[in-house]
């Protein structure tokens, strides 16, 4: 049985390409793997707050020293991390904004990337990810394209950032399906969408 965590990050609703691709994928997945459970969050609309001074004081002090105020500051963070621990497959839909990710997704990452909860620092000062045995699928939507091996690839801070920060937390098995050229007109845009859809259809059987 798979426990899926599905998170949409686009602030757009029906017009969102990343959201539509992800919801079609999850619907197909549920039809193929009937015993899967889905935990869903829409952080494009239910906004995750940025970390605060109280949050930082709480995250970097031992829980047994926490005042009620410090405990409360970590409540949402703990809830989000519990979801990441409980689920074994993550599906994130993510628009590219200014060559990177939307601010609300960054706020989510700041809430879940926590020493002692999702990563540890070992005695040699190295990092150890604590979210082990997880698989992640990231479906991105982009106005332009950033093909590997071309100068444009240097502008893609989205995929490398997501790989790095989730890698820090131990999530290294990550598939990306990037729907690109969505700001282009006509065939280019349509071909890109069809190609993303075909890759996602293949992943229903190949994402093992
Ligand atoms: C604020 C903003 C910034 C954007 N920055 C980029 C960018 O840097 N590169 C790019 O290729 N597309 C960029 N786009 C286009 C979006 O990635 C594209 O519209 C995508 O389809 C948005 O995802 P969604 O359809 O799931 O909402 C930007 C769009 C917005 C609204």
Task: Tell me about this structure.
By secondary structure, the chain is an alpha/beta fold. The chain has a single domain, classed as Flavodoxin domain (Rossmann fold). 39% of the residues lie in helices and 19% in strands. It is built from seven helices and seven strands, in the order βαβαααβαβββαβα. It has helices spanning 17-32, 53-59, 68-73, 75-86, 103-112, 158-168, 187-206; strands at 3-8, 37-42, 89-95, 119-121, 127-129, 135-141, 173-179. The strands form two sheets. The chain has a five-stranded parallel β-sheet with strand order 2-1-3-6-7, with helices on both faces. Helix 1 (17-32) links the parallel strand 1 and strand 2 (37-42). The longest helix has 20 residues, at 187-206. The two termini are 12 Å apart. The protein binds flavin mononucleotide. Flavin mononucleotide binds at residues 10, 12, 16-19, 95-99, 141-144, 182-183. InterPro entries: Flavodoxin_fold, Flavoprotein-like_sf, FMN-dep_NADH:Q_OxRdtase_AzoR1, NADH:quinone_OxRdtase_FMN_depd.
Q: Order of helices and strands, N to C?
A: EHEHHHEHEEEHEH
Largest sheet: 5 strands, parallel
Question: What is the CATH T-level topology?
Answer: Rossmann fold
Distance between the termini: 12 Å
- Ligands, ions, cofactors: flavin mononucleotide
Structural class: alpha/beta
Helix content: 25-40%
The neighbouring-strand order within the major sheet is: 2-1-3-6-7
What is the CATH-assigned architecture?
3-Layer(aba) Sandwich
- What is the C-alpha radius of gyration, as a whole number of Å? 18 Å
Q: Got a strand count? A: 7
Supply the number of structural domains: 1
| The level-1 CATH class | Alpha Beta
Shape type: globular
Tally of individual helices: 7
The amount of beta strand, in percent, is 15-25%
GO molecular function: electron transfer activity; FMN binding; oxidoreductase activity, acting on NAD(P)H as acceptor; oxidoreductase activity, acting on NAD(P)H, quinone or similar compound as acceptor
Catalytic activity: N,N-dimethyl-1,4-phenylenediamine + anthranilate + 2 NAD(+) = 2-(4-dimethylaminophenyl)diazenylbenzoate + 2 NADH + 2 H(+); 2 a quinone + NADH + H(+) = 2 a 1,4-benzosemiquinone + NAD(+)
Family: Belongs to the azoreductase type 1 family.
Subunit structure: Homodimer.
